[in-house]
Known about the structure:
By secondary structure, the protein is mainly alpha-helical. It is built from five helices and three strands; from the N terminus they run αααβαβαβ.
Amino acid sequence: MISKSIAADKSLAKDISHLKEVASQIVEKINSLSIDNLLLIADKYGIRKVEKQKENKKGLKPLPNVKDKVVLRLPPEPSGFMHLGHAISGMINFLYKEKYGGFLWLRFEDTNPNLVKDEFVKSFEEGYDWLGIKWEKIHLF
């Protein structure tokens, strides 16, 4: 409010402390008004802004060429602990499985099986379970 006032009238910048005091009084007065009174004032001065709300589309986009059930797989590479990226991809696959009444396969695979540890595999199983992701089949290598 203060910067807009100074932009409209540069001479107001000379006594900024007085301008701050007046602005504070105005804000206090406006804040004490009811919503109905604020709307009446806004209408009177033509300053009521009505924004068209954007339609917030939520949900999964349809999968192309899917007419019935889908088969999806979660292919974690258990050479480390589960992280947020795994959780996100897991949820997307699970939600598509639910949307299409499909089948979800938890298939552990890794290009270097020597790096795989049981604690990493367990972190995926527990993490997906905690997220509510249910699978129909599990395969370890």
